[in-house]
Amino acid sequence: MTQTDTATLATPADGLPKAKDFTALLRPGLPLGQTPLKSLYKYLVQPDIMSLSAGLPPAATFAFSALQVTARNPTTPMGQDPLGGDRSKDAPDAVHFDIPFTPESGKVVVPGSSTCLLSSLQYCPTEGLQSFHKCVQQHVAKMHSPPYQDWEVTGSVGNTDALDKALGLLTEKGDTLLLEEWTYPAAVDNAHSRGLSLEIIPMDKDGMDPDTLDATLTQWPTERARPKVVYLVPTGQNPTGITMPLERRLALYQLAQKHNLIILEDDPYYFMQYPAYHSPEARTAASVDPLAPKGVNNLIPSFLRLDVDGRVIRMDSFSKVLGPGLRLGWITANAQFCHYLRLHGETTTQSPAGLSQALVTELLTHEWEDAGWIGHVQRIQEHYTEKRDHFLDMVEKHLKGLVDYVAPEAGMFVWLRVLLPQAVLETEGIMDKLFQDLVKAKVLLVPGYFFLGQVDRTLKKDAPYFRTSFAAAHPSLYEPCLAKFGEVLRQYIDA
Ligand SMILES: Cc1ncc(COP(=O)(O)O)c(C=O)c1O
After folding, report:
1. What is the pLDDT of residues 271-330, one digit of tens each?
2. pLDDT tens digits for range 86-118
3. What are the GO BP annotations of this UniProt entry (predicted)?
4. HSE of 22, CA atoms in CB hemisphere, 13 A
5. 290 lines ligand 1 (CB under 6 A)
6. How confident is the model at residue 104, as a pLDDT?
7. Is the CB of 375 under 6 A from ligand 1?
8. Can you tell me the distance from the alpha carbon of 342 to that of 340, in angstroms, rounded to the nearest whole number?
9. Which residues have CB under 8 Å from 189's CB, separation 6+?
10. Is the beta carbon of 238 within 6 A of some atom in ligand 1?
11. Backbone phi, psi, residue 11, to 5°
């Protein structure tokens, strides 16, 4: 993630087509232009302008005058014992750097340009500080090479914010959002609060089922407005843990083309991709390198990478790889969409937090650089792979025959389907009772129906699923927790 001038950015754009015109899919009533005050920004950044215009707090009033940062060394393993080591301690060779108040004494700071405190504590352009913007732009070019010319990036306050902005761009009350049957609850609730109706499409082990999507849209009743947007979490899906294989991504992209859909690609787990799960025996066999991290070059292509039309709005977040409290991410989309997303940002979040941008940009461009970023991604991948493997070993040991699941190759989640006898599963309220019995046994799992892509989640209250996560829990909890789960399930069989 090194920083370069826009001019020296990889220019995959050359010779590529421009995005198609999606004007017809925009929500009616979008702002026509910048808010009046923001429209002066282009003059304000001229170094020789004599401005009495800006209502900006002067730098002398800022509370902070310098920032000393300690970051982890991305090449240092995350702990002595990967399954339980204390990762809170700094490695002795941690990376130290300062974010000074001004970049260099005497140098004029153009507002919004650099990551110094003078700039990053000030209001900044909606798309982000120039340095942050360049950093993520270059990252997108390298990681996703969007196959059309006029893509852009704009900063977000993480993917929850990005989704809110994207739905505001395209949908209005009464529209329909297409989504996976089991999905991220914040997306469901946001869409509902906008008055959207939700059309869930069933999933199989590879994600959203393309045949049902096609049939649903082909048979769409003429009296209802046609859906324009499909929301997908393609990698390490929350809650199912599924990572859509390339063929599925291609099939869904082709359907989006056929039915003129915009794809909202919510992909916070993209860098958390792991090798396939192997049993402990296979892992000790010489032929399997159980940890072999995928790094950044062996990741599954994103929808953005397939996006010849400019119909994907991709949402990236630093939450899962650097820290959710940063509240920092970005959106990649065609220039027209980015223009309106920025206008929306002007009247909502204004911009991502300057300090977060400064921390991340300095870290990625000047401290870690490309090698450090790759090292960090790899150690995250190793960390989660080891946890995932241990978690699934314990599932196999204690829940064999009691649950089934798709072993996740990305993300944080294992979606367990309980295999109780049919008569037991058909008892009304069975999953709620099971949940309560688990809580009594001091085991907390998330009931599957919480993730139904419908506002009335009780419609599937007895869906036989629990979402579990190997991410936050200490690995020493996996075995007692899953063993207890097994005991409780057995009681239902023996009853
Ligand atoms: C699918 C999905 N989207 C978005 C988020 C939130 O991301 P952010 O912290 O960037 O808002 C999460 C997890 O919390 C998630 O699972």
Report:
1. 999 999 999 998 887 666 766 788 888 999 999 999 999 999 999 999 999 999 999 999
2. 554 556 678 899 999 987 655 555 666 778 999
3. alpha-amino acid metabolic process
4. 30
5. no
6. 65
7. no
8. 5
9. 455
10. yes
11. -110, 70
- For residue range 470-487, list pLDDT tens digits in order: 999 999 999 999 999 999
Give the distance (Å) from ligand 1 centre to CA of residue 123.
Answer: 25
For the Cβ of 268 lying below 6 angstroms from any atom of ligand 1, the answer is yes
Atom of ligand 1 nearest to the CA of 329: 10
Token pair for 255 = 């359907």
241 Cβ closer than 6 Å to some ligand 1 atom? no
Q: Is 162 in the pocket of ligand 1 (CB under 6 A)?
A: no
| Sign of the torsion formed by the C-alpha atoms of 347, 349, 355 and 356 | negative
Distances (CA, A) of 139 to 133, 369, 379: 10, 11, 19
Q: Which residue has the higher pLDDT, 356 or 455?
A: 356
- Distance (angstroms) between ligand 1 centre and the Cα of 297 equals 23
CB 234 less than 6 A from any atom of ligand 1 = no
The separation between the first and the last C-alpha atoms of the chain, rounded to the nearest angstrom, is: 58
pLDDT of residue 80: 42
Proportion of the chain in helix, strand, coil states, percent, rounded to 5:
40, 15, 50
Q: How many residues does the chain have?
A: 495
Question: pLDDT digits over 242-282, tens only?
Answer: 999 999 999 999 999 999 999 999 999 999 999 999 999 98
Closest CA to 273 of 288, 293, 289, 290: 293
Residue 461: helix, strand or coil by DSSP? coil
Q: Look up tokens 């096609």; give the residue.
A: 214
pLDDT higher than 90, residue 56: no
> From edge to edge, which strands make up the β-sheet containing 403-404?
403-404, 413-418, 465-469, 446-447
Q: Which atom of ligand 1 is nearest to the CA of 183?
A: 1
